[in-house]
Amino acid sequence: MPDQPLLDVRDLRVSFRTRRGSVTVVDGLSFSVSPGEILGVVGESGSGKSVSMLAVLRLLTSPNVTVEGEVRFRGRDLLALPDKEMRAVRGREIAMVFQDPMTALTPVYTVGWQIAEQIRAHEKVSRKEAHARAVGLLSDVGIPDAASRANAYPHEFSGGMRQRAVIAMALSCGPALLIADEPTTALDVTVQAQILDLMRELNAQGSAVVLITHDMGVISQIADRVMVMYGGRAAEEGPRRAVFHGPRHPYTWGLLDSVPRVGGPRLRRLPTIAGMPVAPGSLPEGCAFAPRCRLRHERCEERPVLSIGSAGADVGSGADAHRDACWLPDDDRASLRLTSRSAATDVPDLEREATP
Ligand SMILES: Nc1ncnc2c1ncn2[C@@H]1O[C@H](COP(=O)(O)OP(=O)(O)OP(=O)(O)O)[C@@H](O)[C@H]1O
């Protein structure tokens, strides 16, 4: 893995001014993405996944929002880039796919025209050539009879086909980075798998991917590395295998325990994480997860730093590092996980079943 990250986000902080005062929803988030890797970002609703990526892309345009920190992409600080240069980065070097494909498609133009225009926005090619490439891309993403389908309007496509069209648009400029926010959530399972395959293909062609999801199952199928977010902060971050086989943060334990699995033991009830997600504006001074954590102790009133800890053997450095933000003693994590589970019955052993 090359040393220089493609995207390097340091101490990102996003606050909204509301009638109740300033509310911080992303609180000192740092992470990086290496060229060609797939980073899965996972966490419950409201954990700040979307807002942090929208901040990275400079798409939070409300006058009530404040974004602080550093976002380096290929060495340039995106937060300091003039608008025009930022627009060139978005769409050409960084592509985006959102849950609702209609956010990227305009209802009044044909799908082929929109992909062709996206190509022409970044490259000097004739209309005819751009259209031919758009047809080729639609065919690449599995749209049958792409030549005639290119002349259809978005409402004439199914949800899965629209998402494919948006991915075709992303593919059109061969982005170094694709940020995909819940791209499969609205789709049925078969189509979901096809869209994940397309992301893998895009990745195989050299694009790094940040995939936001609340679904640990999706992460287990596709991510090289995983960042688990809670309360606008990173709770844990590491290679997929390390996070699935040796999760270190009690919040990650909860997420993994609450994944329903086909073929797993029959559960009398699906375990859930007790308590409510932390509300923006009421982030505790210390560990954000402490109010819901069965293992909280005095030290949790102090904010834990995302770090490798003192464990040693199973952690590496750089992209291989497995970090967590928890004060529990490193050596006792495995037995503590069992202790914390014993209060819940019928909890499956997910580490053994994680995708290798
Ligand atoms: N414009 C806004 N003004 C105030 N608060 C906002 C605004 N946009 C988002 N938030 C708050 O920021 C927090 C993080 O939202 P975000 O959408 O990033 O969460 P998420 O982890 O992506 O969840 P989901 O999976 O539901 O999309 C939420 O509590 C949300 O209510």
Automatic annotation (TrEMBL):
Membrane topology summary: Peripheral membrane protein
Segments of this protein annotated with the region Disordered: 337-356
InterPro entries reported for this sequence: AAA+_ATPase (IPR003593), ABC_Ni/Peptide_Import (IPR050388), ABC_transporter-like_ATP-bd (IPR003439), ABC_transporter-like_CS (IPR017871), Oligopep_ABC_C (IPR013563), P-loop_NTPase (IPR027417)
Keyword Membrane: yes
SUPFAM superfamilies reported for this sequence: P-loop containing nucleoside triphosphate hydrolases
Keyword line: ATP-binding, Cell membrane, Membrane, Nucleotide-binding, Transport
NCBIfam families on file: oligo_HPY
Family the entry assigns: Belongs to the ABC transporter superfamily.
Protein name in UniProt: ABC transporter ATP-binding protein
